[in-house]
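Reopening this one. Same input as before:
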Amino acid sequence: MEFVEIELTQGNINNNHLYLSSVVEFFPPDSIGGSNDSSLAPRILEVHSGITSPVRTDIVGDKKIFRRRAWVGEFFEVHNLAAGGRVVIEKTGTDRYHVYPKRT
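Same output, byte for byte:
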C-alpha cells in the first residue's frame, strides 16, 4: 500500500483545494498538466473521497492542486477539517487514489 500525507493550510480550507507540491512525485509525471483546461495532462487520475462519485482529474502543473476540486469543500465540511489537519492520499490502483482524513 502506497500513501502520502499532507497537512492542510488555511489556504486549502479557504479555497477548497489540496496543495500537492510536497507530494507531487507520488503521482505519475504525465498526470501533471498545464495551467488551464486546454492543457490537460495526457493521464487522468480517478480520485475517491467517499462523499461523492469518483472525480476524474489531472494536476494543475503550476499550482500543484487537483484540477477538479468542487468536491474538496464538501470533503472538508463533512469531515470537519481545519488548518493543521492531515489528509492521507492512498494509491489504490493504476491511476486510482483514495483521499481521506488522518485520524489520531
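So the earlier flakiness isn't reproducible anymore. For the record, The first strand starts at residue 2 and ends at 7.
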